[in-house]
Amino acid sequence: MSTIRVRGGQSLNYGDWVIQNVYMEEASLQCGNGQTLIFLIDLNVSSPRTEAKSLVKWKNSLSPPLPPFVNSWSFTKLGNLFNWDAIVSDSTNTTVSHINLSGANLTGTLTALDFASLPNLTQLNLNGNLFGRSIPSSIGNLSKLTLLDLGNNLLEDALPSELGQLRELQYLTFFNNSLNGTIPNQLMNLPKVWHLDLGSNYFITPPDWSKYSCMPSVTHLALDLNVFNGEFPSFILECHNLTYLDISQNTWNGTIPESMYSNLGKLEYLNLTNSGLEGKLSPNLSMLSNLKELRLGSNKFNGSVPTEIGLISGLQILELNSISAHGKIPSSLGQLRELLRLDLSVNSFNSEIPSELGLCTNLSFLSLALNSLSGPLPLSLANLAKISELGLSDNSFSGQLSGSMISNWTRLISLQVQNNKFAGKIPPQIGLLKNINYLYLYNNMFSGPIPEEIGNPKEMMELDLSQNQFSGPLPSTLWNQTNVQVMNLFDNQFSGTIPMDIGNLTSLKIFDVNTNNLHVELPETIVQLTALTAFSVFTNNFTGSIPKEFGKSNPSLTNVSLSNNSFSGELPPDLCSDGKLTILAVNNNSFSGPLPKSLRNCLSLIRVRLDDNQFTGNITDAFGILPNLDFISLSGNQLVGELSPKWGECGNLTEMDMGNNKLSGKIPSEFGKLSKLQYLSLHSNDFTGNIPPEIRNLGLLYKFNLSSNYLSGEIPKSYGRLARLKLLDLSNNNFTGHIPKELGDCKRLLSLNLSHNNLSREIPYELANLFSLQILLDLSSNSLSGALPQNLKKLSILEILNVSHNHLSGTIPQSYSIMESLQSIDFSYNNFSGSIPTDGIFERATAEAYVGNSGLCGEVKGLTCPKVFSQHKSGRANQKVLLGVMVPVCALFIGMIGVGILLYWRHTKKHLDEESKRIEKSDKSIKMVWRRDGKLTFSDLVKATGDFNEKYCIGKGGFGSVYRAQLLTGEVVAVKRLEISDSDDIPAVNRRSFLNEIESLTDVRHRNIIKLYGFCSCRGQMFLVYEHCGTTTDSVAPKSRPMMRFVAQQLSLATNHHKACLADPFGMITITKLTGYD
Question: Which value, to the nearest 10 degrees, does the dihedral of the CA atoms of residues 254, 259, 260, 264 take?
C-alpha cells in the first residue's frame, strides 16, 4: 500500500484521508521503484480519529473538575468515538454531527476547540456552562451547522462577523452572556434562521438600523435585556413572519409605530416590558388578533386603556402594570374569556372593579394592587373558581370579605388585600382555602375575634393580620400550622396568653405580636422554635423571666424585641452564641443582673437597646469591637466602670446613649474616630476631666449631651466646627473659663444649655448668630458678668431664655421685647437695673423672673416702679429739695455743653496735626495721675477698684463707666473710665476732646462744679478722677427717694436726648455720677 509521509515523519494510510478543504502541504510518495514523488496534498481532512483527537485536546484545556461523563473522551477509545457521551454521529457513523454539552457546568474557553476539524457538525449545543472569553472567528468554518446554542455562558466581546458564513443555520441563540458591541449586520444574511435570541447581553444600538434587513424566515426574535436605545428598530417592522417578539428591558424612546399593528399581524407573543416607550396605547392593538401574550408593563404610556383591547379574543396573558394608566378599568376585558393572567397593578385607575371581570372564568392570576380603586368587591368575582393568586392591596376597597366569594376560591395560593379599608369579621369560610400559602389582611379595619377555622389550612406559610382591630384571645388552631414561617399579628387588641403549643411551629421564622394586650410569662417552649430569626413581643403586658436557653436553642436569631413590658430577671446568657444577632431591644423592663457575656464578641450587632432597666455590673470590658454597630443605648441603669477606648473602633456607630448610670473616668479621646456619630449622650454619670478636643472631628454630630457629670476645664473653641449640631447640653458640670465665641458658628443649634457651671466673663455677642436657636438658651447659675448683648434680639424664634444666677449688670434691653416666640424668661439674681421692657413676654412674666435684682423696676406684679406724686406734705417738701439740687445740675450741663462748642470752634481742623504732635510728645506726662499734692497714682486707682471690677461700678454711660474708689487714706473718689480705642491709635480729635474736658474743669471755678483731682491715659483707656459726692438720693430724705429715682430717670432721658444732638463723645460730669442711672 502507498503511504503518505507528512511533515514530522508520520506515516498514514492514504485510504484513511478524506479530502475536504484546500489546505496544501508538501509530501512525498514512496513508489515501488524506490523513487520519491513530491506533490501537494490537502491536510484539512476529516476522520473519526482526527475529530476525536480535536475533542480530546479541547477537553484537556477545560478547568477541573470535569463531569464524569467526559471521562469517555480519551485517546484509548479513539476507535469508539460514537460511543462517547454527548457525541452523536451522522447516519453513516463516519463523522460527528451533533455535540450536546448543555448544562454540563464546564469551565473553559472555545479557543482550543478546532472547529475546522469538525466540518460535518450540524448541531452544537453548549448552553448552560461557564465558557468565557470571546467566540473564535474560526466558528465560521462550521458551514453545515443548523443549530448553534451558546446561551447561558460567560462569553465576552463582540460577535464575530464570520457567523454570517453559516448559511445553513436555522436556530441561533447567545442568550445570557456578556457579549457587547453592535450586532454584526452579516447575521441578517442568514436566510434560514427562524429562531434568533440575543437577549440578556450588552449589545448597543448600531449607528444605523437601516443597514439591517430582516431575515426572511425569522419567526422568533429576542433582543431583550440589552443596552439598546433610540427609536424602535425599523428592520423589525419588515419581519412579517414574526410570531414571537421580545425587545423588553431596553431604553427605547418614542412611541410604538402604528405600522407594527398592520405589518406584524402574525404575532402571538409581544413583550415590550420596561422599554421606555411612551404615548397612548393605540386602539389598533386589536389588529394583533392572534396575540396570546401581550406584555406592555413598566412603560411611560398614559391615558386610558382602549376598550378595543377586548377584541383580542384569544388573549391569555395581559400585563399592563405600571404604565400610568388612569380612568376606569374597561369593562370590555370581560370579553377575554381565555384570559389566564391579568395584571393592572401600579396605575391610577380610580373606578370600581367592573362586574364583567367575573366573566373571565379562566383567570388564575389577577392583580389590581396599587391603584385608587374603591367600593366593595363585586359579587361576580365569586365566579373566578380557578383563581390562585389574587392581589387587591393598596387601594381603597371597602365593605366585607364575602364568605360566598371565599368559598369559591378554593384554589387560592395567595390572597393579598392589605392596605385597604375592608371591615367586619373574617368569615369562617377562610378555613376552606386548603391550598393557601400567603394570607395578607394587614392594615385594614377588620375587627372581632379570629375564627378558629383559620387554622384549617395546613399549607400556610405566611400569615399577616397586623394593624387591624382584632380582639379576643389568639385561636388555639393557630398553633397547628406547622408549615407557617411568618406570623405577624402585631398592632391589634389581642388579649390572653401565648400557649405552650407555640412550640409546634418548628418552621416559624418570624413571630411578631407587638402592641397588643397579651400578658403572663412567655412559654418555655419558645426554645423549640429552632428556625426562628425574629421574635418581637414588645409593648404588651408580659411578666416573668425569659427562658435561659433562649438564643442558644435558636441559632438563627437575628432580631429580639422585648421592649415595653414588665419582664424581670437576667437576660439569657447565650442570646448571641451563634453570632447572628443584629437587633436586641429589651428597653423599658425590669431586667437586672449583668449584661450577657455573649454580647462582647457579637460582631453582627447593629442595634442594641438595654435602656431603662436595672442592669448592674462593670461595662468596661462588656463590649468588644463591634464593626457593624449602628445604635446603642444603655441609659437608665446602674452600670459602673469606664468607657473603653475600643468604642472608637466601632466605625459605623451613629447613636450612643450611656446616660443616667454610674460610669466614671474620662471620656476616651478615641471617640473622635467615630466619623459617623450623630447622637452622643453621656449625661448623669460621674465622668471627670476635660472634654476631649477630638470630638471636633464628629462632623455629623447633631445631639451632644454631657450634662450632670463632673467634667472640668474649658469648653473647647474647636466645637464651633460642629456645623450640624442641633442640641448641646453641657449643664451641671464644673466647666470654667469663658463661653467660646466660636459656638456662634453652630448655625443649626436649636438648644444650648451651659447652666450650672463656673463660666465667667461676658456673654459673647456671637451667640446672636444662632438664628435657628428655638428651644432653649440657658446660661444660668454661672459667674457671667457684663451687660446682656443687645443683638440677642436676633434670636427671633427662641422660646426659653434663662440667664439667672449670674453677675450680669446693666439694663435688660428694651429690644428683647420684639422676640415674639419667647415663652419663658428668667433674669433673676443678677445685678440688673433700670426699667423692665413692657412688651411681648415681658407683659406676661411674673416677678419671679426678676427677683434678686435690686435696681430693676417695671409694671410687673410685685415689682412696681415708684409713683410720680405723693399726697403727703413730706413728699412735696422732698420734691422741693430735689428741684433745688436738679436746677444747678441742669445749669452745669448747659454750661459744659457751651464750653464744648466754644472749644470745638477754637481748635479747628488745621491745628489737629500740630496738636496731635504736641499730645504725642507729652504723652508720657499724662500716663500718671496728676494731683496738686502729688499723692495720687494710677496704681492707687487700680488697687482701690479691684482693677476696675464691676462691683465698684456705680454708673455707665455710652462711652464709659464710673467707679467708686476708696483710697488707702480712706478718702473716696469717683473715677471715670473712658474706653475709646487702642492707646497706640487714639485719633487726635478724641485726645483733644479728652484734654478739653480737663482744661474746662481746671479753668472753671464754681461751688456747683465737682472738683477734678487728676487724669491719666493708660492701657488704651483714659481716666478722670473727681471728687466723690455720693448720689442725689444720699442728699434727700429716705421718704423722697422714690420720687428722686423717677426724676433721675426723666433727667437721664433728657440727657440722652442732648447727647444724640451734640457731638461731644465723652460728655462731662453726667447724671450718672449723681444717681447711678445712665
Answer: -170
